[in-house]
Predict the 3D structure of the following.
Amino acid sequence: MIDHLIPKTLHEALSAMERVHFIKVAGGTDLMVQRRMGPMVEPRFESPVIFLYHLKELNYVKEEDHQLIIGSMTPMEDLLHHPSIPNHFKKVLNDIASPGIRQMATLAGNLANASPAADTLVYLYASRAEILLASLHHERIVPIRDFITGVKKTVLKDNELIKEIHVPLCPCTTFTWTKVGGRKSDAISKVSFVGMAEMSDHHLKKIGIALGAVAPMVISDHAMEDDLQGLSIKELSMRKDAIIKHYASQINPIDDQRSNKTYRRKVAINLLTQFLDELLLKGMTS
Ligand SMILES: Cc1cc2nc3c(=O)[nH]c(=O)nc-3n(C[C@H](O)[C@H](O)[C@H](O)COP(=O)(O)OP(=O)(O)OC[C@H]3O[C@@H](n4cnc5c(N)ncnc54)[C@H](O)[C@@H]3O)c2cc1C
């Protein structure tokens, strides 16, 4: 039998994590696939396992100061039906896996798995989400760009877990989400894209751009986004080619069984171009 702990409370979980190096299990939809050993054989875990999914203390959605506060064990399917979750985030969630998987899958698992093809990451990077990490005696907030440090790598310490995900609410006037997969549902992304922007008075108030599955980490550049804020439509139009060139220089996809790098690169650049064109068109007519 797998050495495991099913804590009754968050405090019990955090206390145990001070003493033992556990593998944390949320919904298990990534872990159980990664650790499977074949039919009728239990999955292999090199360390004891701690189950967190049932902890009600980590299952909530709140709205505070123009941001969503999402408890780390809230299943994606609950988010999809929650009145506080904006429709554009729901579009992303609706394209993930299937309802059955979404009943178990969590944002925390999607984040901590740190795959460049994880679908919520593009939304969370473009929104500038922050992650609240908790250990028994300490909590810290880490911006998403600092949380993931490489493929399957994060700054999580052994005694920490993801407690909350904080997602700023964007009053977007333009939002694009595209997932390119091998089929319409239950597909792993070949390329994913989120573009969000707030325009008013023919000026860009806010912009968020993120590209997934086309580099070892999600491509997102908050410094570039800050630089674009405040531009008029005319100025943005003049910068369009430079923006595309800037992001294109970071696109560095791989060939794998799902797709090849030439296709991924072309599609990613097309999606960015379409988003900027839509933004410019709306800005001229609004
Ligand atoms: C059939 C199928 C289809 C899928 N389709 C998609 C898809 O379309 N898009 C997509 O992005 N993903 C997809 N996935 C992958 C998976 O469902 C998601 O990545 C999901 O969000 C993982 O969440 P989980 O709660 O199941 O994580 P788990 O498997 O429990 O954990 C994943 C990782 O996160 C860590 N972890 C979990 N919770 C915490 C926490 N609170 N604190 C610290 N570390 C934590 C675990 O230790 C582990 O390393 C699919 C998986 C399957 C099996």
User: Anything to note?
Assistant: The two ends are 63 Å apart (CA to CA). The first strand starts at residue 4 and ends at 5. Residues 23-31, 33, 52, 72, 96-97, 101, 104-106, 108-110, 112-113, 118-119, 156, 161-162, 186, 188 surround flavin-adenine dinucleotide (CB under 6 Å). The chain has a mean pLDDT of 94.
